[in-house]
Amino acid sequence: MEDRCRVCGQDFIIEDGFFLGATYVSYAISVALAVPLMLLLVLVFHWSLPPILAVLFGVLLIFMPGIVRISRAAWFSFFVRYDPDWEKKRIEELLQS
């Protein structure tokens, strides 16, 4: 992950270990994806546990890069608010430099 946003200049390094909290968001997203899939495989297709675990592992492995990106973005948005006037402020920053 880059240190700053290329577009608006937002600093992504707020403090050491800041994105550790994103692991909780990632866990919640993974559970929200795995539980319905598991219920579908058990209740509709009547699969046993070993194939279900194999499918869940494969699905989560495939989706993990996206889940990590979404969880980091969600965690970041909890603490950094969008500023609709960011372009004006960025131009003023660049002119002052």
Write the layout of secondary structure elements.
Elements: H1 22-43, H2 49-79, H3 86-96
Helix pairs in contact: 1-2
Secondary-structure element order, as H and E?
A: HHH
Query: Pairing-aware structural class of the strands and helices?
Result: mainly alpha
**C-alpha geometry:** elongated
Query: Biggest β-sheet, characterized?
Result: none
Instruction: Provide the helix percentage.
Output: 55-70%
Q: Show unreliable segments.
A: none
Give a description of the structure:
The structure is a single chain. This protein has helices at 22-43, 49-79, 86-96. With 97 residues, the protein is mostly helical. It has a domain at 21-80.
Which key terms come to mind for this protein?
mainly alpha; elongated; 97 residues
Task: Offer a concise description of the structure.
The protein is 66% helix and 0% strand.
